[in-house]
Each structure stands twice: as C-alpha cells, then as structure tokens.
Amino acid sequence: MSTERDSETTFDEDSQPNDEVVPYSDDETEDELDDQGSAVEPEQNRVNKEAEENQEPVRKECTWQVKANDRKYHEQPHFMNTKFFCIKQSKYANNAIKTYKYNAFTFLPMNLFEQFKRAANFYFLVLLILQAIPQISTLAWYTTLFPLLLVLGITAIKDLVDDVARHKMDREINNRTCEVIKDGRFKVAKWKDIQVGDVIRLRKNDFVPADILLLSSSEPNSLCYVETAELDGETNLKFKMSLEITDQYLQREDALAAFDGFIECEEPNNRLDKFTGILSWRKTRFPLDADKILLRGCVIRNTDFCHGLVVFAGADTKIMKNSGKTRFKRTKIDYLMNYMVYTIIVVLILLSAGLAIGHAYWEAQVGNYSWYLYDGEDATPSLRGFFNFWGYIIVLNTMVPISLYVSVEVIRLGQSHFINWDLQMYYAEKDTPAKARTTTLNEQLGQIHYIFSDKTGTLTQNIMTFKKCCINGQIYGEWKLSLIFWQVDFSWNTYADGKFAFYDHYLIEQIQSGKEPEVRQFFFLLAVCHTVMVDRIDGHLNYQAASPDEGALVNAARNFGFAFLARTQNTITISELGTERTYNVLAILDFNSDRKRMSIIVRTPEGNIKLYCKGADTVIYERLHRMNPTKQETQDALDVSVTFILSVMETLCLCYKEIEEKEFAEWNKKFMAASVASTNRDEALDKVYEEIEKDLILLGATAIEDKLQDGVPETISKLAKADIKIWVLTGDKKETAENIGFACELLTEDTTICYGEDINSLLHARMENQRNRGGVYAKFVQPVQERFFPSGGNRALIITGSWLNEILLEKKTKRSKILKLKFPRTEEEKRMRTQSKRRLETKKEQRQKNFVDLACECSAVICCRVTPKQKAMVVDLVKKYKKAITLAIGDGANDVNMIKTAHIGVGISGQEGMQAVMSSDYSFAQFRYLQRLLLVHGRWSYIRMCKFLRYFFYKNFAFTLVHFWYSFFNGYSAQTAYEDWFITLYNVLYSSLPVLLMGLLDQDVSDKLSLRFPGLYVVGQRDLLFNYKRFFVSLLHGVLTSMILFFIPLGAYLQTVGQDGEAPSDYQSFAVTMASALVITVNFQIGLDTSYWTFVNAFSIFGSIALYFGIMFDFHSAGIHVLFPSAFQFTGTASNALRQPYIWLTIILTVAVCLLPVVAIRFLSMTIWPSESDKIQKHRKRLKAEEQWQRRQQVFRRGVSSRRSAYAFSHQRGYADLISSGRSIRKKRSPLDAIVADGTAEYRRTGDS
C-alpha cells in the first residue's frame, strides 16, 4: 500500500511552508518543481530522464515575443489563432477590458437563452405553440403571447440596464489616457488603443494601463515607486528598477522612438510576483524579472514620470488573469421555483390526462348516445379524449401563472431601490450611497451562512495610528477613566502636522522637562531608525514610507518634537525640540521577514557611535544585555497592562547600544566584505548583523493601531449572533491579520488558535483513519461524521497561503520519474498513470472536504498571505462541500475573483479603486453597513418573497382547480368555470396589487428590532419560510379553498327560488357567484398574511374588490354587449344575480368557511407554538429603543501575555540599500504627493473588566 502511494507522488516534506511568502505554486510548471528536487536520484530515474531528453528536446518557457515600436510584427500570420471557423484573431489581446455580459450582437440570443432556462418561461413558450393549433385551443393565442412578451421584455430591460452600467464603467476605464509613441513622438492615446509593443510614458499618480517593462524614469538609476493596493491590498510603496542599459540610453524621446528591443518571455499567467524573460538589444541579451515589471492596476508614486514597454495588455495582464469570469448568479429561491414549476407541470399533466380519460369514457358511455350533444364531427371517443387533454393543458395553465415572474421582477426592483434609498447606509464623508448593482439577488441576502472578507480597506481604514508607548516601564497614552482628558496641544511644535491626536499630557511634560533622558532618546530613535523618504511641499514635511506602520512611528516622533527633516547618502538630519542636528549614517541594517527588526548605526556630532534598533519583542528580548535595568518592567507592563490587553495593538520594542570605535572598525570590515559578496549575500549580511546587534539596552515599546473602520466589532458581533460565520481572507502578513482578528473581536483571549502545522497534523491523522476504514467492508458501514475537536470551547483557525496549498494538495507535486515519461511506452504504464491520477484526485477531494469540515467547526477562520486565486478557491470549497450560501466582501482588485465566485459579492468603495465595486452585486462605503444590508434588507426581502410566493401559489391553485371540480359536472369537456374576461383579468387586476405591495412593504418587525435581535435571521438560513413542505401546504390550502368555492355555491344553487319566484341557477350566475367569493376570499387572505399595515395595503385590498365589482357590472352591461356581442356574452348576469339576497349569503358563507379555519389555526399557532418573530411582535410595544451595543468584557488571566507582537514594517525589505548606495538621492527633488493619511485618530474608550 505504501509503495503504491510512494509511486504516485512525492511532496516537499523537507521544506515547511513559509508563512511570510505569498504562494503562487498553483501555476508552477513541472520543470520549475523539478529544479527544487534533490540532486541525488535513483539510477533508474536517471536512465528514464536521459531517455526522455533524448526522445524530445526540452521546450523553453519563454514563448511570448514582443517587438518594441513594431505593431505589424504582432500581426504576422503565425501569431493568429482561429477563433470561429475561418475567423482569425491575434493571440495578443488588445488593452480594452470587459466586465459586461452582453454586447449589441449577443444580448438578444444570450438573454433569451438565460430567460428560457427558467422552466415557466419555457413552459409558456410551449403553451403558446399549442394555442396556435385550432383543433385543441380553447383560448386565443394572443392571450399567452402578450403576457410572455411582457415578461421577457421587462426582464430584458432590467438586464440591459444592469449591463449598460457595466459598459459605462468599462468605458470610463478604457477611455483613460496616457502618452504613447506614435510616428516618432509621444501622443495622447486612450487605454483601449494601447497594444503590445507600444512604448508609453506615465506620470505621477497615473494608473499603469498594462503590464509593462520599465525602461527609464525621472528617478536616479530609473527607480520607480509604485503602490500596489489594487493588486495585493497593501498601500505601502514598492520600488521597481530598470535595466542599467535602458536607464542609460532610453531617457530622450527620440531614443525611445528608435528603441527596437525584442523580448522573449513567459506566456500570460496569474503569478503576480513572478516574471521570466529576456531582452535582446544592441546584440546583447539581458535577463528580466518581476522587479523590472510594472503591473496593471499599480499607481505611480513619488516619480515624476517613467517610460515602459507594453508586454501584456488587456485580458492578458496578470490582474485580469486573477479576476475570473463574470458568472450568471441566481438565487436559491430561483432554483427552488424552477423545481416547483416542474412539480406543477407534472401535476397539470396528470390532471389533464385523468380528465381526458374521463372525457373519453364519458363520450363512450353518454355522449355517443345523446343526440342533442352531436356536434357534426364523427370523432372517436379516444380522439376526443386526446384533444381534450390539450384543452385541459390550456385551461389549467394558470396553475403556473406567467404574471408570477413579472411580479417577482417588480418586487426585486423595488427592494433594490429601497437599498439605494436607505439613508442609514449613506456615507456622507465621501457622498457614497449604498448601491444594488443587480436586482436579482435581494432575497438571497437573507440566507447567508458564510461571509468572506478582505482585511485591508474592508475591516480597516489603512490608517496607522500611534496610540501608546511604554518607556522605562511607564505607560503613556492611557486614559484615566476617573478624569476627563482633552487632546494635547502641539502648537509649540512648528513641525506638528495638526492631525495627530494624543491625550496623555504627562508625556509632553516629560519630553519638555528632560528629567528622564530615556524619554527623549525614545523618540529620537523613532526619528532616526527607519527608511522613510522625506520631501517638502510648500514648507510642509511629507513622508513616504515602505509601510504605513513605519510612517506612523516617524510621524509620531515628528509631533512629539523629533522631526525627521532630510537625509543624504551618508547623513540624516533631525530637528530635536527645534534644534537641527545632523548625524553621519555609518550603516543601515535593514529589515527582512527573518530578522523582524532593523537597526541603524550613526555617529553623533560629538563623535560617539551608537546603534539604534527596533523590532518585534520576541527577537529583541533575545539580544538584550542580561543586566538590562528596564527589561522586566517593560515586559510586565506589556503582559499585565489593561491598556495593552484591551487595545490589542501591534507592539514594537526599541533599544540601543553604544559602540567603541575599535569595535566598530573591526565589524565594519566584515560588513563591507559581506556587502560585496557575489553569492549568498543576504545570508552573509544577516550573519554580520547578528554580531553587532547584541547586549542591547531596552528603552521601551510602542503600540500602533491599524484603525478599524467604525462599527466593525459591533457588526461582526451581530452577524455572529445571526449564526453567520465570518472568514477573513487577506494578502497581509500573519501577525497583522491576527491582530486585526483580536481588534475586531473575531478572536478573544479565551480563543484556542490552530495554525497551519496543527491543521496539517489533524488532517493527516483523519486521512489515515479514513484510509484504514476504507477496506473491503467499507461499503457496508455507514460513514460516521466525526468531529475534529471536542464539543465546547472557542476555536479559531489561522492559516497562511503556503500552508493552504500544502494542506489542500494544491501545491504542484513531483511525480516519480518512473511515471514521468511524457509518452507511456506500454499499456501497463498508461493504466498505472490513469489509476494514479484517479487516486490523486480522490485523495485531494477527500482532503479538501476534511479541511472544510474542520474549518467550519471553528468560530473564526483567518487566511493570510493568500493570492486572489486562493481567495476564490476557499470560497468555492465552502460552496462545494457545505452547500451554503456565501457572501464575499472586499475593496480591491485582488478581491474581484472571490467576489465573482461567491453567491453574492459586495464591493467597498474605499481607498483601492473601483475594480471590486465594478464586479460586485452590491456596494457601499463602510463594512458596518453590511449588518443592515443582511439583517434588515436581506431578511425583509427573504420574508417578503417567501410570503409572496406562498400566497401566489395558493391563490392560483384556488382559482384554477375550480375548473377541475367543475369538470365532473360537465362531462370533462374542458369547459371553463368562469367568464373569459374574469380569467384574463384575475391575475392582472383583481388579485395582483395587494400581493405586490406585501412583497414590497411587509415587515414582521421594525428595522431597529431586526438589528436588536439578530437571531431572527436564522429562518432564512434554514429555508424555513419557503420549501417543498410550505409549497405543498399552499397547494393543499388552494385545493381546499377551490373545493369550498365550488361546492358551497353548487349546493346553494341545487334547489333555490328567488324573490321573484324564478330560480337563477344558470351557469352564468353560478360563475359570477364563484368569482365574487374567490376575489373576496383571496384578498381577505392577503390581509391575514400581512404583518405591517399601511393605508396603501388597506386601500389595495378593498380597492381590488371594488375594482372587480365595478369592471364586472360594466362588462355585463347591455351597452358593451351591443358594441362587442361576441366578446361580452354575460349580459345582465351580475345585476340579475347579485340583487338576490341569498346569493350574497352564499358568497358570505363561502368566504367565512374559507377564512375562519385559517384564523383559528393562526391563533393556535401563535398562542401555543409562537416563533421568535411572533414573540417580538407580541411584546414590541414594551420593547424600548434599541440599546447601545456594549463591547464584551475581556477575560483577564494573570501571567498570560495577550499582546500580539508584529514588526511594524512591510514584509519586504526596505529602502536601506537604496539610501546607502545613494541611488535614491536626487540633486533637486520634486515634490512628493503621497502624504501621511489624513484623519484624527479616534480612541475607543473601554473600561476595566
């Protein structure tokens, strides 16, 4: 068994997944993976490999060819692919993007195809064809054609409006402009006109229109700073750098126009962090990598201009490859309605067949022997029965009324407008209302089980704020709850930015008095130990940091009097409480994800050498001097301080040491040697850094907060009470994601956290158990659903993208070399390979199912360092294995794929552009509006739609099945029980408005109570209000009502005499009596179903009844009969029948018998088995206004550290190498326009436990 498994595949078990790396292994090639394998391989594998290489040369991966400034090159025949028959299209995509579904040519066929996928629409199409056959039609064909065209037209117009909006957004992007070289000059061109091979110029704050090779820029060494928020959700700057030769020769316009470089690179793919290619120019080949590529969606920052060569355009760009396809989304109720329509059609066919058989039998027994029934046709009873079958199909077709779908679309449209008009979801600061971008998914908002949320910009504001610090064991920044504090006045500081909020005045006193030199040294360290860039605009300082965390620390030091002013290659200038001092920078020991710290070595103006270091407490404490005076005090402050526990912020420890001249000289020699090492340079530098970063003296710690959006904890709490699980999927680092989990209360102090390695071992054990149980007798044993964790307890899962690939077996596996022959030489080898693939797929599917089961046992799941494709994969796994309704919410282009994959996608119109909004179904400006969207609008929409559908089926069964009972008394002849005009207008006028208004306006409880009692939401998750059981209850209710409507009037008409001595027991009077009782019954029934009464509801119910009588008396008048004698044949029936009191008594009796049992059942149900909604309705007058939500009190456990230390830097290397090399220092710097984010830091006041 084990030998078999070993021959299938081998995994990289030696290398653990890296939590700091964003994985893209789902697209790795087999060759890439082979390179990672061991150098030693079995002899047989080596022989097979040699045979394979001799059989077929290895194909190069660089097959994408780009010629600069030569569009005709890319139009050559061998670059053309056959798209449709003889139509050919270039394999190079144009730069126009499309998020729309239709165009002018495909709209009609594709939209009609989508609509006829609905069973009812297809059913009415077949019915229309049948009505065109005279032999079987009892109704005119146009009675079905016009309603069908109306339904198709309204739906098509709605879809058209939705798609036109997408077209408009696409045009807005495609019509953006940039400069492109044409005819030897830079000319302004639209994005959609850009093609592969074009040379373009971009300026500061421009979006990159395509994936381009950076050729040159205004910065030294052609550096270019970009913001990648659209790609990975991070707002910190990253830098790209061109080749040295292109930087040297391609600065001038004429040189760029003459550039004729030739690129061979990889085919378009979705790997954001990888690029492999070669530039051939000037008879030399230059290697290209991802550091030289600017991706579409990036924004140019801190760079006046740059030039680039378009490599991938439009749909071939990496961000579009990550976006996924636009999917047609339909609600769960839509699918359920389709199945119910199938059920009704089956019932209709059975009824028609039964009645047709009855008619054939009746004809044989009665009709053929009754001379007065002879119609002039000598048809056999069987043939008459066959024609009657189709006649009943047409007569009973109103069991599936076509007006149902028109009404559903109208209700959805109205509910979408209610979302758009909701002022409580309007964000005034940015003038952004909520927007329902589709009108087909509203009721599904009331059935959500899982929410998948992005972090950056969705849960947080991307605004890092300095909140507190601990210096010498003393915490500054805490609010003393017994006092009222006001903001510190920083007006004494000329460099203060005026936006920084701090409330601890004692810290300012300590800085100004200088009684504790450690306090000043603390902020001096923040001002000097960093890689921030600085520029001045109109005399104001503007910082540009490699991460928002670092920017927040430098900005805090500036406000406290230690302002970073300028830097050169070897110096840094600081304003210390108004005094400018310049320090010589001797070395910058940069940050990376392994070191989790950075240091700087400076020489003071007095000649002393000092090292300043900041980093995560876990690495700093290992390097402190053992006699450090404040080590224990600082650790105690971090461990037991109420402030640090309740705030849950990112902590950073600060320390320093003084270095002797001789010690530095010896160390500097090693440092310089490591700096020029030709191999393993990073490892050599890290080893040298370790030698100097020891025996440090601790100054204190900082606490910075990535500020949550307003109302995030409250929203998550309410959604959790509604039994909605929230998973956070982010590209950010693990520590940051974990901190946000605590801050928004997804995680608490009593939460047991499981990480990737824990999950992997649990899943491995489960797979072994399943394999052991999968023996010969497995098929005779019922599968047992075991839990991964014991019941009880609060658990959370935090997993990185690398572990996710490892666990889900998405990481490419290396097949054994024995099986890796591209062409199996024997049938046995082919069979073994096929079986191996099947086993691998089965194992992968079982592993994925186990992972989903395990994750769903956790109260919270956080997936960090995941790619856009992995986000969509996680959503799809939950959809696949849990059959649950999912919602994805995000604000960046990296969230588009999961937004499209989920049942419902929500876009946040935030800091990261409009890509997520464009692809979403709903959009708004703040995460907190999600609770109102789901708990109020979603729940109301679900309840309204369910009530509407149940009532609609009921009223049509009650209406249609009267024909069935009538058929037993008319020889099964397909004779209608009502007047033709009543049949035509019943669903259009007499019973449409009340149910339409209920579907639009009804609410069981108010919006405030819906938010106050989130538990009301579970009815939608459990499909309690509309399912097959409810459908059959409506069917039974309709059957009983139809029996009452027919048989009570029938009994009353059997032996009756009017006041004038006549017996009005004719067919027409009977039809009027049944129709009147039906209209009154169904309209009063909607009154019983209505929970929220308004004047409009009451008017619609009584108005519909009055409208019925008004139209009936008009249609039964002599005047209209004179004008249209063949169309109006019930002349005088209404006035003759309804003047008889006993007919009114018959109508009243019929209505009473129909409604009184319903009233009795409702009363007993609400009294004995009340639902949560019933209880709240009963006591709603006693319920006070919605209470202010209180944050949960934290559980304090002594001796347990509750801080989550995350190094306050980007997870990539900083700018230290640029600064020390002088490449980024300009003789005359232009203004930067990336400013530290605006906004006053709001402090969330909390109390002691």
Automatic annotation (TrEMBL):
Family matches, as InterPro entries: ATPase_P-typ_cyto_dom_N, ATPase_P-typ_P_site, ATPase_P-typ_TM_dom_sf, ATPase_P-typ_transduc_dom_A_sf, ATPase_P-type_domA, HAD-like_sf, HAD_sf, P-type_ATPase_IV
Keyword tags: ATP-binding, Cell membrane, Cell projection, Endoplasmic reticulum, Golgi apparatus, Lipid transport, Magnesium, Membrane, Metal-binding, Nucleotide-binding, Translocase, Transmembrane, Transmembrane helix, Transport
Composition bias, Acidic residues: 25-35
Molecular function terms, GO-annotated: aminophospholipid flippase activity; ATP binding; ATP hydrolysis activity; cardiolipin binding; magnesium ion binding; phosphatidylcholine flippase activity; phosphatidylcholine floppase activity; phosphatidylserine floppase activity
Domain P-type ATPase A: 174-237
Residues annotated as domain P-type ATPase C-terminal: 917-1171
Entry's localization field: Apical cell membrane; Cell membrane; Cell projection, Stereocilium; Endoplasmic reticulum
Keyword check for Nuclease: no
Enzyme Commission number(s): 7.6.2.1
Region called Disordered, residue ranges: 1-58
Topology class, membrane: Multi-pass membrane protein
Active site: 454
Membrane-spanning parts: 116-133, 139-161, 339-362, 389-408, 948-969, 981-1001, 1031-1055, 1067-1086, 1098-1122, 1142-1165
Main location: membrane
Residues holding Mg(2+): 454, 456, 891, 895
GO cellular component labels: apical plasma membrane; cytosol; endoplasmic reticulum; nuclear body; phospholipid-translocating ATPase complex; stereocilium; trans-Golgi network
Protein residues bound to ATP: 454-456, 550, 591, 614, 730-732, 865, 871, 894-895
Basic and acidic residues composition bias: residue spans: 43-58
UniProt cross-references to Pfam families, sorted A to Z: Cation_ATPase, E1-E2_ATPase, PhoLip_ATPase_C, PhoLip_ATPase_N
Subunit-level organization: Component of a P4-ATPase flippase complex which consists of a catalytic alpha subunit ATP8B1 and an accessory beta subunit TMEM30A. The flippase ATP8B1:TMEM30A complex can form an intermediate phosphoenzyme in vitro. Also interacts with beta subunit TMEM30B.
Stated family: Belongs to the cation transport ATPase (P-type) (TC 3.A.3) family. Type IV subfamily.
Protein's name according to its UniProt entry: Phospholipid-transporting ATPase
